Amino acid sequence: MKFSEQFETRFSEMLTHYPTKRSVLVPTLLYAQDETGYVSDEVIEEIARRLALTALEVRNVISYYSMLTTKPRGKYNVQVCTNIACMLRGGEELLEHCEKRLGIGHKQTTPDGLFCLEEVECIGGCSWAPAVQVNYDFHENLTTEKMDRVLDEYAKKGAV
Ligand code: FES
Predict the structure, then answer these.
(1) Which protein residues are within 6 Å of ligand 1, measured from CB?
(2) What is the model's pTM?
(3) If you write DSSP's letter for every residue of 79-143 in order, what string do you get?
């Protein structure tokens, strides 16, 4: 299993910031996922080995975080919050709109591999509900029209 030089630099640096190796598990998984698109079995084994954990311990952590995935998914992961604040301000309609527009449902990927869609719990943008997270970017105070513009932007970026 080979990661980039940038990954190795970040990994070595992170290890110096925490008292235990285990503390760097989540950021390490995120950096690895950024490189490989998802957390494969091979990545899990490698990270477990490096941090002196079992593969099961690593999998348990992955299952807790919706931003981590063990399955390949689209380039842009559209996470629509339908938790209470967002629900009261149109989050469910927004999700329905995304499903129609992208032609996919929860945890599915578009045939071109560009988008996948996920209904998620609170993403911390309640004051600006309804909120959506696409990879690491937040989009807030959304309407279906604004959501279309957001998706258009990603489609344009992804087509390059
Ligand atoms: S309820 Fe949607 S961001 Fe908090």
Answers:
(1) 81, 83-86, 122-126, 129, 131
(2) 0.80
(3) EEE-SHHHHHTTHHHHHHHHHHHHT--TTEE-TTSSEEEEEES--S-GGG-S-EEETTEEE-S--
